[in-house]
UniProtKB/TrEMBL annotation, chain B:
The keyword Translocase does not apply. The chain crosses the membrane at residues 31-57, 92-115, 127-148, 229-249, 288-307. It is a multi-pass membrane protein. PANTHER family: BLL4140 PROTEIN, DIACETYLCHITOBIOSE UPTAKE SYSTEM PERMEASE PROTEIN DASB. It comes from [Actinomadura] parvosata subsp. kistnae. Keywords: Cell membrane, Membrane, Transmembrane, Transmembrane helix, Transport. This is ABC transporter permease. InterPro entries: MetI-like (IPR000515), MetI-like_sf (IPR035906), UgpAE/MalFG_permease (IPR050809). CDD domains: TM_PBP2.
Length: 288, 315
């Protein structure tokens, strides 16, 4: 006998509640989208702050944003991209290798070193900023791109994720079969294990690239040359200047609003297009 | 040849190999293991152990105008733990954690449970939208909320004006606490929701079927089955949010320029360390604060995990 299929569940009150929450989470985006269209009179004229003014001038504001101060904003975006890619890719390569090594080889000192990595999960990254700054200043590394890229390579959580994933998704039997067929250890890793680990690799890459892109405290401490700033530090500086002299900086405010909008676009696109990947990987850390 | 084994994965694989090959195999395991782990190990030593050791070393000295730098052992730490700025900052982040972390987790859990129960096109859309703030740098999030709170740009004046009420000023001394709670909740609740949602989706639906047969209602299923089963994920986000909140820096630092006078340079311990090190060039004391703060977080979280480890945590 067939059982009746459960009716699709609608739950109208819950959906309405969810609707309110969505509005809450979207309000800041909406504000930025609306207000980045305004010119100075529209912004300060006392009109509705959650709706468009009479003049909608996205292109004009964009042009201003990218030409202000010899196009420093474009430079900040490029810097952020460089830091995110270099830090993200570097951290991922290290994490994949280490996670695989911890999962698949019983070497001397393995338990102790893995315990160290787990302990490092609990050392907040920001607690390392001032110590790292002082060490780097001994070597003259502060105020260079390396001051931002090198510390981003340290990603103990990535190692932990890769360890869990390699342990569960790469069976020892397959590796042994590859070895028996005469493949060396490196080739076994690259051609047999790596393809099996790919979903977690994408997740770690995304998470570490996002962490580098979002980083603020580290570059704020390390960099003094504004041509090396990532976009987070740059906008923070602009905001400080604009708030310090309220009246004289009306044009800077519209640059900041447009700048905030432009700076979130790359990540929002990345998250939407790659959502299949990060969602699978996020569950790895949560479930075990 | 290795035989198929039903042993646990942690059993040494070299066991089945013939004795004369064993030494060679073991050596290869050692060498290859360290080759794979080594590069990360170098980064770990150079960028985690070395800075911490150096900061610890620096924190044991004091620089004076007269007499130069001298070894003072724990004087800087004694100074920190009697320094009203450090203590009030620490008290603030503790209070802030006690309010904001439960709030974020409750909001995230409620959203995850709703999204797990109801499936429609709209809930799929909601899931993405609620997660969206995670993609936003915390600095930009703080800048955006700064605009919304502001008297000149924000909608609060208009909104409350409709009812003839005075708008709340979330950048003032009384309300900045809640202003920051809101920014942090907006930023992170979606991320926690995704982690919890992924854990909920991993539960075998047969359990719900069985519970329904036994007469359990929707609430009972949520409270008695779903929440206990995702306890490890809840613990994970609790730890993450605790580590993050005790280190609070980005949001108050950004809102500082808008909330002149409300947020001082010693608002949180991390801001205080930053001020000591970079504004006052007092590196020894800044190191001591950084080290003390990092140490407290580490010990606190470790103790917490130790106490809850029976529940088979994520570690």
């Amino acid at each position: 006998m067939m059982r009746a299929r459960p009716r699709p569940q609608r739950h109208l009150p819950l959906q309405v509640l969810l609707g309110f929450l969505v509005v809450y989470f979207l309000v800041p985006f909406w504000w930025v989208i609306v207000n980045s269209s305004k010119d100075a009179p529209g912004l300060f004229g006392g009109g509705n702050t959650l709706w468009f003014a009479d003049t909608i001038d996205y292109l004009g504001n964009l042009q201003q944003l990218f030409t202000y101060d010899n196009g420093i904003y474009g430079r900040w975006i490029l810097n952020s991209t460089l830091y995110a890619l270099a830090g993200g890719i570097g951290a991922t390569v290290l994490a994949v290798m280490a996670g695989y090594g911890f999962a698949k080889y019983r070497f001397a000192g393995r338990r102790f070193s893995f315990a160290l990595v787990l302990g490092a999960l609990m050392v907040p990254a920001t607690a390392l900023v001032i110590p790292t700054f002082m060490m780097f200043s001994e070597f003259g590394l502060t105020n260079t791109i390396w001051a931002v890229i090198l510390p981003s390579l340290l990603n103990p959580f990535g190692v932990y994720l890769m360890h869990v994933y390699a342990r569960d998704a790469v069976p020892d039997e397959i590796l042994d079969a590859a070895r028996a067929d005469g493949a060396g250890e490196i080739r076994t890793f690259l051609q047999v294990a790596f393809p099996l680990m790919r979903p977690a690799v994408v997740t770690v890459l995304l998470l570490s690239a996002v962490a580098s892109w979002n980083n603020y405290f580290l570059p704020l401490a390390m960099l003094s040359d504004n041509r090396l700033f990532p976009v987070t530090v740059g906008l923070g500086v602009w905001q400080g200047i604009a708030s310090a002299n309220n009246a004289g900086s009306t044009s800077l405010w519209s640059l900041i609003i447009m700048g905030a909008l432009v700076s979130v676009v790359p990540l929002v696109i990345a998250f939407f297009t790659l959502q299949r990947h990060w969602r699978g990987g996020l569950s790895v850390g949560g479930l075990r | 040849m290795t035989l198929l084994t039903t042993d646990t994965k942690s059993a040494p694989r070299a066991r089945d190999k013939t004795p004369d090959r064993r030494g060679k195999v073991r050596l290869r395991e050692h060498v290859m293991g360290w080759l794979f782990v080594g590069p990360f190990g170098i980064v770990f030593l150079a960028l985690l152990i070395a800075p911490l050791a150096y900061a610890l070393y620096l924190s044991l000295f004091q620089k004076k105008l007269i007499g130069g730098t001298s070894f003072v052992l724990f004087d800087n730490y004694v100074k920190a733990f009697t320094d009203p700025s450090f203590l009030s900052g620490s008290w603030f982040v503790i209070r802030f954690s006690l309010v904001s972390i439960p709030l974020q987790i409750i909001v995230a859990l409620a959203m995850a449970l709703i999204l797990d129960t109801v499936t429609s096109l709209f809930t799929r859309f909601s899931r993405l939208m609620i997660f969206l703030p995670y993609a936003i740098p915390t600095v930009i999030g703080a800048v955006m909320w700064g605009f919304l709170y502001s008297k000149s740009f924000g909608p609060l004046t208009d909104l409350f004006g409709l009812f003839g009420a005075t708008p709340p000023d979330f950048l003032s001394g009384n309300l900045i606490f809640y202003g920051l709670v809101n920014v942090v909740t907006w930023q992170w609740a979606g991320y926690y929701m995704i982690i919890l949602y992924a854990a909920l989706q991993g539960i075998d639906p047969a359990l719900y079927e069985a519970a329904r047969m036994d007469g359990a209602g929707r609430w009972q299923i949520a409270l008695r089955i779903k929440i206990p089963l995702i306890a490890p994920a809840l613990l994970l986000i609790l730890v993450f949010s605790l580590i993050g909140t005790l280190q609070f820096f980005n949001e108050p630092q950004i809102l500082r320029s808008l909330a002149a006078g409300t947020i001082g340079p010693d608002f949180t311990p991390n801001m205080y360390a930053y001020q000591q090190a970079f504004a006052l060039a007092n590196f020894n004391y800044g190191s001591a604060i950084s080290f003390a703060l990092g140490g407290i977080v580490f010990v606190g979280v470790y103790a917490f995990l130790f106490l809850t480890r029976k529940r088979r945590t994520f570690l």
